[in-house]
Amino acid sequence: MNQGEFGADVSLDPSDPYARRSQTFPRLEPEMMDRVSAFGSEIEVSKGTILFSRGERHTDFFLIKSGSIEILDPSGDGSLRVLAHQGEREFTGELDLFNNRENLVTARAAEDSRLVRLDRSSFLRMMSAEPDIGEIVTRALILRRVGFIRHGQAGVVLIGPGHSADTLRLQRFLTRNGYPHRLIDSDIDPHAGEMVAALKICALSLPVIVPPGKSVLQNPATQELADVLGLTEAIDPAEVYDVLVVGAGPAGLAAAVYAASEGLKTIVIEGVAPGGQAGTSSKIENYLGFPTGISGQALAGRAQVQAQKFGARLAISRMAVSVDCSELPYRTVLDDGQKVSAKAIVVATGARYRKPDLPNYERFEGQGIHYAATAMEAQLCQQQEVVVVGGGNSAGQAAMFLSQWVRHLHIVVRGPGLKETMSDYLIQRIEKSHRITLHPYSEISAIDGDRYLTSVTWTNRMTGKCESWPISNIFMMIGAAPNTEWLKGCVKLDKSGFVETGIMAGTVTSGSPFETSAPGIFAVGDVRSGSIKRVASGVGEGSVVVQAIHQYLKQIPRL
Known about the structure:
The protein is an alpha/beta fold. The chain has four domains: 17-120, Sandwich (Jelly Rolls); 156-228, Glutaredoxin, CATH 3.40.30; 240-352 and 481-555, FAD/NAD(P)-binding domain (3-Layer(bba) Sandwich), CATH 3.50.50; 361-476, FAD/NAD(P)-binding domain (3-Layer(bba) Sandwich), CATH 3.50.50.60. 26% of the residues lie in helices and 24% in strands. Residues 24-144 form the Cyclic nucleotide-binding domain. Residues 1-22 are annotated as: Disordered.
């Protein structure tokens, strides 16, 4: 193994960012250094000077003119582990330079050094004014975060039973928000007991999160975890945004990218993590420009960085619970009581999978019943038999991905087949796979188990025949229920709860097909009545709606 200065095995794996030193820690050309220097100020620091520490917000950007800097990973016992040693013509930072979240690492001068320092606003101006440098910097910041995630560095430790609902809930939250972590499965790891004892906690308190320099979190709520890790940002109730985007799925992120890039003051509110329902897809293969496919999480991650690079703010782990649309600016209330004021609102809250009415269903949610099929879930069911319920593209993508990991996969659908609801390329692959069996005219009729799910029964609605299998994992991908409860009383909804827009909503203000019955409130993506439930169409709607927002903002008085 090649154990380099990054403390990770980087031998013969080109996908590892630490094996791509020239991209992850690039050296700027002298003329590029001059251009960057024009945006900052030159400083001299002595050996041992702390430039920034883990947990700080608004970290500055440093370009090394001479000397060197150590990037350090603080551990729980207060010690500092060197992650990287950066030298002349290199620069500091990772993705948190684009937002106001807490920084993940500490930087210290390894020797007397001469640096160029750019504060946050100067850094963002430089990134906008110097696009060739911005491309190099953005790629490096993304790769550094990918390296942290891949090697479990600069993050937290999660200790708990690998199949428990709360462990999976916390792991999903960290994974989908791109937060580095290392899982210690207390059911199988022989060292887990020692760690629990050393932390002086009861095993009944598992799962726990162990962040460096902070108290152990015993089975925290998702919102509490986000707050402690510094992922959330305080919102000034007196600030009025041009655009509030509610929901960070493909449609919402597209709206944020185009709105922010066109100079609109933009904020995005997201209840869980960027990506929405699409973010749980293991691979999207029919999205334009990605011939080999791209995971929903990767697509959302790139879009999130893109929006923040243009200046959009992203507030996660906060749900919109109501909106006062009786006067301008509109005021949206979040579940923690914070209020966001905006002249225009883009509703992009999407839809969620429906839940069947089954005994024991809630008992096994997260402990055998899943709504996403990513590498995390696939590892739970290696060489097992699993069930995918649903006949749409999400179900097909999940089936194809999981079939690479499992012993056999069953697709259960209520209809006669997949032709009416799934793309042809997925149907053909499913039909050719010897690891997948389709069960038409069928539905899950019973689930059972002890601590975890162990048995699944489905019934053929045409014949009445029941089949029971020793299955521990079900992937539920049926129907769509819109996330529109917070909008009731403000905009017109159809009988299923989706937002009516355009002619359907009787809009007259802008003539936009995405404007709702309330002027200045627009709906895009899966939450819109009559929308096409595809990632590409959601992205298209999110980008196009910004033109209508510009027209609307010109018509209203200055606020």
